[in-house]
Amino acid sequence: MTRAKIDKNNCLVIYEDQFSNYHLHPLWLRERLTDPDFLDSNNYQRLYEPSLITQNIKIKNF
């Protein structure tokens, strides 16, 4: 069974029974958005500048 929670470092931690645990930082998640509002549908380039993302983002909901 897969479980997930936010740890004390504000990382999303995914627990897999048969695999290792995965720790995903909010910036890593933000840079990999595939929503059409953030990604060009023709060439899959980002529609925002990743270096301008604030460094103190937090996961609110998952």
Name a few traits of the molecule.
62 residues; mainly beta; three-stranded antiparallel β-sheet; 1 helix; 3 strands
Write structural notes for this entry.
The chain is mostly beta strands. The protein has one domain. Helix content is 10%, strand content 18%. It is built from one helix and three strands, in the order E-E-E-H. The chain has one helix spanning 26-31; strands at residues 3-6, 12-15, 22-24. Strand 2 and strand 3 (22-24) form a beta hairpin. It is globular and about 40 Å long. The model has no long low-confidence stretch (mean pLDDT 87).
Summarize this structure briefly:
The protein is mostly beta strands and 62 residues long.
Give the topology:
Elements: E1 3-6, E2 12-15, E3 22-24, H1 26-31
Weakly predicted, low-confidence segments: none
β content, as a range? 15-25%
Can you tell me the number of structural domains?
1
Largest sheet: 3 strands, antiparallel
End-to-end distance: 17 Å
**Rg, alpha carbons:** 14 Å
